[in-house]
Amino acid sequence: MKKRFLVIAVALVLMLSLSATAFGANEQSVVTTFNGTVEITNVTRVGNIFDDEAFDMYKIDELLKISDKPVPFEDYYELYYADAPVTVTLKKPDDDVYSILWYYIIAPEDALNITEYEAIVFDYEISEYVPSSAYHGTVTINKPGVYYFYLINSSGVSDEFDIGIYIIVEGQADSAPATPAPVEAKPTASTVLVNGTAIEFDAYHINGNNYFKLRDLAQAVNNTEKNFEVIWDGVKKAINLVSNKPYTPVGGELAKGDGKAKVTAPTTAKIYKDGEEISLTAYHINGNNYFKLRDIAKIFDIGVTWDGATKTVIIDTSIGYVEE
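Predicted structure:
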């Protein structure tokens, strides 16, 4: 097998329904493997793919429809049994020798929290060390089933250059994530001036604050000194905000609302600004995300003032944001 040493890719396949055989309750422990870069919690026992009668790797591959998965170098596999919830952590090492360069996972899409960073790898074609993308983070498994991990690290001389890890997860997570409490969103009637021009927004008053459609705000300040791009990452279910970049309309921006109150709840999407995760409260209404006006103004340093006499919200991109 040819080593794909400099291949950098990310693939994600949703887990197919597959019942795992029950093996009874066992003492749980944390296992660290693959040169210390992978940690698996709630492991009840270690299996052997070649003589474990309860495990048929080839049958599972067929059922999971992954017979075309990458074949680990030197057929290096591991098998673990664990109780849900299970957390698999891809670690960022102290040096770059064992950084994880490539991973392939069968796992729930919403359980991934993986971050890309820069590592150093040896390029055999030019006999030099070069920068390369690597990955670290966590995968949380809450449902019973059979899960497969394939990983390649940056050490071409390691006995564990790559690995295939099967995890048979049994049991059930103790509790499901709490469902956000619904709240009422009332249409706001405030006049809004953007750089002196009146603009009608489909905005809502939620818990004492005005929330505006994110893409409406991006469109309203587009082509100004404070413009920003909005990108939706469907794989990571994340909103990416990019400073000082023109906004790309997707259609429906600044459309008039129906004037009716809505029942909504906070969005569960992660939010990133210029590559860094940030914490903002947002609400999902009719397929769109609504953010507090002052939160967006603050992170992009946009001036926002309130004229109580005329009940007017004033957005001015020529000045900076000032706290209330």
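Summary: The first strand starts at residue 10 and ends at 13.
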